[in-house]
DNA sequence: ACAAAAAGTAAAACGAACTTTACATATAGT
DNA sequence: ACTATATGTAAAGTTCGTTTTACTTTTTGT
């Protein structure tokens, strides 16, 4: 699962810690998601979508063919 | 987290087992998600969106105010 | 009413999502 | 070069998503 969090942060000049705070998760969680270590839960994806005022699909991209 | 899985199944005349098979999860997982026992993972939400050719937001609805 | 299929439920087990604490490395400003 | 801020990483622990097995209840068809 790819995501555009780093770019969306950059556009707003937010640090990982800033984003973490706004999403109510730990900084390590943001880091891990950005680095692709794991996928966010669906509720967290919704929260990010609300924060950035984007569709989930515009932030997170599935990379499945099947 | 609410979802429209039951309706989407009904429109296609699929049982929970049918949907489970198409999404590659167990029937109990579908049942639990439909009954609101837990939220699907983001990858599973994407899979459902692809299957139904809908946006994730058109299948699953967050019910958060904060 | 009966049988078959579908839906609901529950417990045990496992991996994934997330936390806290802690430290290491990188980047930027003076 | 020094300091502060930002990012990366790791271990241990908790909760959540999912599976398997198995049983009960509801719905549907004849």
From TrEMBL, chains A, B:
UniProt keyword annotation of Translocase present: no
Residue ranges of domain HTH cro/C1-type in the record: 5-59
Keyword field contains ATP-binding: no
GO molecular function, one term: DNA binding
UniProt keywords, alphabetically: DNA-binding
Pfam families named in the record: HTH_3
Domain of life: Bacteria
InterPro entries referenced in this protein's UniProt entry, alphabetically: Cro/C1-type_HTH, Lambda_DNA-bd_dom_sf
Stated name of the protein: Putative transcriptional regulator
Organism, as annotated: Marisediminitalea aggregata
């Amino acid at each position: 699962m790819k995501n555009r969090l780093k770019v969306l942060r950059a556009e707003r000049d937010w640090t990982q810690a800033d984003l973490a705070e706004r999403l109510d998760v730990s900084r390590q969680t943001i880091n891990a998601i950005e680095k692709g270590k794991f996928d966010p839960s669906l509720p967290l994806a919704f929260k990010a979508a609300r924060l950035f005022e984007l569709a989930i699909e515009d932030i997170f991209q599935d990379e499945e063919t099947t």
